[in-house]
Amino acid sequence: MVPGGGIDFAGPMTSTTAAATARNSATYTGRIPGFLALTFGISWLAWATALLLGGDLSSPVVFVFFALGGAGPSLAALIYRLRGVGSPRMARAGSTVRWLPVAIVCAAAPAVLAAVLGPVFGAPALTGAEPAAVLADNGGLLLFLATSAFAGPLSEEFGWRGYLQPRLRTRFSPVVTTLVLGTIWALWHTPLFLLAGTWQSGLGLGQGLGFLVTMVPMSLTYWFVSERLRGGVPGAVVFHLVGNVMLTLLPFTALAGGVVYLATVLVIALVVLVLPGSGARSSARLLR
Questions:
Q1: pLDDT at position 214 over 90
Q2: Whether the Cβ atoms of residue 160 and residue 236 lie closer than 8 Å to each other
Q3: Distance of alpha carbon 244 from the chain centroid
Q4: 31, 43, 110, 189: which could join 264 in a potential S-S bond, CB 3.0 to 4.6 Å?
Q5: Cβ atoms 122, 201 nearer than 8 A
Q6: Which one has a higher pLDDT value, 155 or 31?
Q7: For residue 92, how many other CB atoms are within 10 A of its CB?
Q8: Rounded to whole angstroms, how far apart are CA atoms 87 and 95?
Q9: Phi-psi bin for 275: left (phi > 0), alpha (psi -120 to 50), beta?
Q10: d(C-alpha 191, C-alpha 72), whole Å
Q11: How large is the average pLDDT for residues 252-280?
Q12: Which 3-state string (H, E, C) describes the chain?
C-alpha cells in the first residue's frame, strides 16, 4: 500500500510473496463486475429515464438525467472510494512535462487531420467560422471549456482510467486491456444515439459505427498517457478534453472525414504499439 490508501504496482517478487500477491490481485480484480454493474446501472437507468421523458436535451429535466448518466463511471468509482476501495496512483507530478505534450498532440491530431485531409477525399471543407459559432452557441470560451471538461473527461475518467484500467492491467497486457476497456467504453455510449441533441445522435450509421470502433485503438493511447507516461487520471482527463474540444470546434460532416479520423487514431495506436520502450507489448502487472 502507498500513503493515502492507494495500491502500488511492483516489479519482480520473491517466491515468499507470490501467493499473497496472487490473492491480492484476485481480490483487486474481483471488484470489476460490481463496478461495471454500478456504472451501467447509473448511466443506462438515467438515460432510459431521459428517453421516457421525451429524449430531447433541450428540455432541462431531460438534460439533468442525461448529465447524471454521463457521470456514471466517475460516480461509481467515487462510491467505491467512499467504501474504502483504493486505486493505484499512476500519476507522478514530475512527469507532466512528458505526458502533457503527448496527450495534447495525440488527442488533437485526429480532428485536425480530418479537417485538413477530409476535403481531399470528398468531405465538405470547413469554412473557418465553425469555432466562433460553437463558442457563441455555448456561452463563450470559459463556459465552453468548463462544460467540455465535465461532459466526458471528469465525468468518465475517474472510472475508466482511474478505476477500471489498472484493475484490468493486473490480469492483462496493455493490448488486451485496450480491447476489453475500449469495447466496454463503446458499449456504454450506445444509448446516447437515441437522445436528441447529443453529439452521437447527429452521426449517420457509418460515422456512428466508426465512432464506436475508434474507442478501441484510442484506448491504447489513453493507456500510454495515463500509465506508461505516468499521467494518471489527470493525463486521461486532458487527453479526453482536448479530443472532445477539437471534435466540437472542427466537426466533420461526411464519412470521408470520419475515415481520416479513424485512420489517424489507428496510426497513433500503431506507433504506441511498436515504439521501443513504450511497454505496450508487456505482460500484466502484478500487485505487491
A1: yes
A2: yes
A3: 10
A4: 110
A5: no
A6: 155
A7: 14
A8: 19
A9: beta
A10: 13
A11: 91
A12: CCCCCCCCECCCCCHHHHHHHHHHHHHHHCCHHHHHHHHHHHHHHHHHHHHHCCCECCCHHHHHHHHHHHCHHHHHHHHHHHCCCCCCCCCCHHHHHHHHHHHHHHHHHHHHHHHHHHHHHCCCCCCCCHHHHHHHHCCCHHHHHHHHHHHHHHHHHHHHHHHHHHHHHCCCCHHHHHHHHHHHHHHHHHHHHHCECCCHHHCCHHHHHHHHHHHHHHHHHHHHHHHHCCCHHHHHHHHHHHHHHHHHHCCCCCHHHHHHHHHHHHHHHHHHHHCCCCCCCCCCCCEC
Total residues found in the chain within this entry: 288
**Of 33 and 252, the one with more pLDDT:** 33
The cell for 265 is 487514431
Whether residue 169 has pLDDT greater than 80:
yes
Question: Closest Cα to residue 167, out of 70, 86, 53?
Answer: 86
Q: Is 14 a residue whose pLDDT tops 70?
A: no
Residue 68 exposure: Cα atoms within 13 Å on the Cβ side: 15
Q: Return the C-alpha cell found at 39.
A: 456504472
Supply the mean pLDDT for the chain: 87
**CA 8/CA 48 separation, integer angstroms:** 38
Question: CA triplet 230, 141, 75: central angle to 5 degrees?
Answer: 50
pTM of the model: 0.88
Q: Is the pLDDT of residue 22 over 60?
A: no
Give which of 206, 200, 162, 199 is closest to 181, Cα–Cα: 162
Q: How many CB atoms lie within 10 A of CB 122?
A: 10
